[in-house]
């Protein structure tokens, strides 16, 4: 599966690379800096624009509003920095990745990122989130195949574990635990 099949095409938007990439990087950096310096509710498009060295109209033209910008920054933070750790087994790799995912998403900053993404939910943002998860689970599965193991279909992991984690983080009275992850994986693996 490639990025283009999971991320709907924009009807209008920036061109990749060049000035557009520099503007995006500057604006994202400005948001992160301003959030680190002061209260979230004090963040405004003019303040971000001034910090990034662009005009507010650049931000409005590219992102539409502050909520869309915050969602874009949150999704960018979710982009994996590399391949999932290799523990030597499919079950170990998947368990470790899921536990790290739970820790990240259930943390205060993780919950804030999720609220930003859902608050400005667009197919672009949710498609990228799904793509990043799928990419990591696919990598774990490909590594398992290379070791002679039989991995679960990625969709089964998304539906059987990741979706339960996300629902629990967002809506359940208590956050899922690593024990829940183990139980859900056991059910999928038929253990």
TrEMBL record:
It comes from the Bacteria. One of its GO terms (molecular function) is DNA-binding transcription factor activity. SUPFAM superfamilies: Homeodomain-like (SSF46689), Tetracyclin repressor-like, C-terminal domain (SSF48498). Residues 21-81 form the HTH tetR-type domain. Keywords: DNA-binding, Transcription, Transcription regulation. InterPro entries: Homeodomain-like_sf, HTH-type_TetR-like_transc_reg, HTH_TetR, Tet_transcr_reg_TetR-rel_C_sf, TetR_C. The keyword DNA-binding applies. The keyword Transcription applies. Residues 44-63 bind DNA. PANTHER family: HTH-TYPE TRANSCRIPTIONAL REGULATOR RUTR, TETR-FAMILY TRANSCRIPTIONAL REGULATOR. This is TetR/AcrR family transcriptional regulator.
């Amino acid at each position: 599966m490639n990025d283009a099949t999971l991320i709907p095409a924009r009807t209008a938007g920036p061109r990749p690379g060049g000035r557009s990439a520099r503007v995006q990087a500057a604006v994202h950096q400005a948001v992160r800096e301003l959030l680190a310096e002061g209260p979230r509710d004090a963040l405004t498009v003019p303040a971000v624009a001034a910090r990034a060295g662009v005009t507010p109209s650049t931000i409005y033209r590219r992102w539409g509003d502050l909520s869309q910008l915050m969602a874009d920054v949150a999704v960018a933070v979710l982009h994996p920095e590399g391949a999932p750790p290799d523990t030597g087994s499919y079950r170990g790799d998947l368990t470790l990745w899921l536990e790290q995912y739970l820790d990240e998403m259930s943390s205060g900053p993780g919950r804030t990122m999720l609220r930003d993404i859902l608050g400005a939910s667009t197919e672009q943002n949710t498609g990228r989130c799904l793509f990043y998860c799928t990419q990591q689970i696919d990598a774990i599965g490909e590594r398992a195949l290379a070791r002679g193991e039989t991995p679960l279909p990625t969709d089964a992991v998304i539906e059987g574990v990741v979706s339960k984690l996300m629902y629990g983080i967002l809506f359940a009275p208590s956050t899922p635990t690593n024990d829940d992850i183990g139980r859900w994986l056991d059910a999928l693996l038929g253990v």
